[in-house]
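Project standup — Tuesday

K.O.: blocked on the structure for the chain from last sprint. Re-posting the sequence here as requested.
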Amino acid sequence: MSDDRPEPDRIEGAPHPCETARLIGQDRAQADFLKAYTSGRLHSGWLITGPKGVGKATLAYRIAAFLLAEGPEDAGGGLFGDAPPEPTSLEISPDHPERRLILAGSHPRLAVIRRAVNEKTGKLQAEITAEPVRDLKKFFHMSAADGGRRVVIVDAADEMNVTAANSILKELEEPPARTTILLIAHQPARLLPTIRSRCRELRCVPLQAEAMAEAMDQAGVHIDEREAMTALTGGSVGEGVRLAMHDGLALYAELIALLSRLPHIDRPAALALAESCAGKGAEVRFPLVIDLLEQFIARTARAGLLGEPDRQGAPGEARLIGKLAPDDRAARRWAQLQQDLSARIRHGRAVNLDPAALILDMLFKIEEVAQGVTAA
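H.V.: unblocked you, prediction finished:
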């Protein structure tokens, strides 16, 4: 389904969502959709929500295959004209003609809207623009010939710009007959309230350790440290694949070792870490270090309110977090730091701040808060 161009809905090292054989850990969401279908209360708009990487796009493609395989509206019933039995799952055989068309990216009754590639730079655009949404008018007209269902997948809806969002709202307000619009949203609060009100929500949940391991095995990525992986990813298979591909668990253990000396940090070690995130070849390590440091701060803030985490992301993490966030007052300090650093990171990236300087700034801000918390 892909060429050499980047795809916004594909995780490096994992199958595309439409290629994923099984959806693991989202039985409730599948059951909710099937119940609506069999009861005759199939909404035209569905909002599929949940954290990144937990299977929202996979669910959308399963629903699409299920609906497209239904056939034309005037198709006959069973052998003697009776109604076919109600389906008990969304499962469609990989050999089904409709499924093969989806896998080939050429189904005439499926439209997929996602961020496009900038033809000049070869990079993905920052948002979904209005043009592909406006093209739905043409899609609806051309796909209506055989009377079958039509499906639109928007991945991700919270990446639409204002014009695109208003255009999709018009389609939700007056949907064509036998059309289902599936909006995938990582942050549904960013959507227009009117879009949310027009859709029924399907909530996908973070995966537990066993389901995480099973889903990652299916993606071709085996992990031994199941508890640590689940702790750091929040039950996101997509994030788990990313960490596994780039030795993220080992890197997090390295960060915990560096931070274990807090409230005072090892300056030479901090400088060495920062320098490892700069220069050629550090394009992956730099954002990964930023994300893991933000994860550590978030886990520390939560621990001040809820106690030490049940699962450790690395040896010694729970003890360190317990020292840095003994109470809710400390939790507020770490939560504020997380907000401040997120803003500083966005600004630093926007002005192309030196990666080493950005990492050092994060580490020294962590040290500053640690000193304030432990001195109190």
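K.O.: great, moving the ticket to review. The beta strands are 45-49, 110-113, 150-155, 179-185, 200-203. The first helix runs from residue 27 to 38.
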